[in-house]
């Protein structure tokens, strides 16, 4: 006789499979090294149980890494390609997923070059990213884009960092609205994103850049994707341009609609006179919930709001009926609640603009985020413990993010510690 097991509570083992894996390695004092990148790749390779794959087991839902732009590495490879990029943060790096069709690809490249020139900047050249397609599964290879990097020179009158990135943001938004067959994973003078439809072990082997000893960073954020409400694709792999996300935003339709409704009255003095209209609409409603949140945080950041503040007002802690917080904190959340509704749902989010790395947990604490601080000034954060083998005597602090808590560490000008 077949035995039927009845469920006695709300728990189901199936729930263990509906979330992604996230991780980050940061040198708190900003010391760049290749080891930071290596350790981040080790983390994502340990998170295989949190990554989706097809029935054949050869194509993943998506894996990726966000790092600072490695000036040492790009000086070397651009020199080999006769591209003169100048000093650190004097150039922007764009990662492009172009169509396989040669004519469409040439048209897209030319369009981007024209927009860069129209915005008063100099386009320096294209670099085809060295890859190893043979490590991929059939499905990933079949829809694989042509992956290139484009380099843009910083105008002399612009300050390094955010001011230059704001101009690159305008260029990217104009390009996206002029071209519908090319995806831009990142375009920045501070960060670059490598990602695709990989199994966790394929990220390192597919992109040979990541294996180069000269590729160094003080910040590295990784993500292994398990698609819950969208189909896997090269574009939908994480990281997005600022965030990686474990969970779901359950209020996403209302959040996106309200962002669109605000556009008639939006003002952003940080943008030049006509630039604001070039970047609208802020949210691409065809993207995933993570991508729409990333669109919003990017816009707020480019408008001059600090990234930690933007994260705190989009994913606030439970403040309305919380008697344990101070009146000052309550007033802070009440003030920003008049401008932005919470993006709610089980979510753990890591974010970085290349100057700092931060993390925020949803107000109900439904996604785990644990971190270590080590005696060699590293912060290691992941969706679970055990992702890196660290002797216990080297660990100064073990902690977890608490519901609604935002933690960040930075080293660049204008950013302090945690």
Can you tell me about this structure?
The protein is an alpha+beta fold and 418 residues long. The strands form 3 sheets. Strands 7-2-8-1-13-12-14 form a 7-stranded antiparallel beta sheet, covered by helices on one side. A 4-stranded antiparallel beta sheet has the order 4-5-3-6, covered by helices on one side. The N and C termini lie far apart (60 Å). The protein is globular. Residues 1-7, 11-18 and 412-418 have low confidence and may be disordered. The chain is 28% helix and 22% strand. The protein has one domain (17-410): Glutamine Phosphoribosylpyrophosphate, subunit 1, domain 1 (4-Layer Sandwich).
The total beta strand count reads 15
Corresponding CATH superfamily? Aminohydrolase, N-terminal nucleophile (Ntn) domain
Structural Rg: 21 Å
Strand proportion: 15-25%
CATH domain fold name: Glutamine Phosphoribosylpyrophosphate, subunit 1, domain 1
What class do helices, strands and sheet pairing give?
alpha+beta
Task: Work out the helicity level.
Answer: 25-40%
Low-pLDDT regions: 1-7, 11-18, 412-418
CATH class placement: Alpha Beta
Based on Cα principal axes, name the global outline: globular
Kindly report how far apart the N and C termini lie: 60 Å
So how many helices?
A: 11
CATH structural architecture: 4-Layer Sandwich
Strands ordered across the widest β-sheet = 7-2-8-1-13-12-14
**What is the succession of H and E elements?**
EHEHEHEHEHEEHEEHHHHHEEEEEE
Mean residue pLDDT? 90
Tell me the count of domains.
Answer: 1
Chain-wise SSE layout:
Layout: E1 21-27, H1 34-46, E2 63-68, H2 71-80, E3 91-98, H3 102-118, E4 122-128, H4 138-142, E5 146-153, H5 162-178, E6 183-188, E7 191-196, H6 202-206, E8 219-224, E9 243-247, H7 252-262, H8 275-279, H9 289-302, H10 307-314, H11 327-337, E10 347-352, E11 356-361, E12 370-374, E13 378-382, E14 395-400, E15 406-410
Antiparallel strand pairs: 1-8, 1-13, 2-7, 2-8, 3-5, 3-6, 4-5, 9-10, 10-11, 11-15, 12-13, 12-14
Helix pairs in contact: 3-5, 9-10
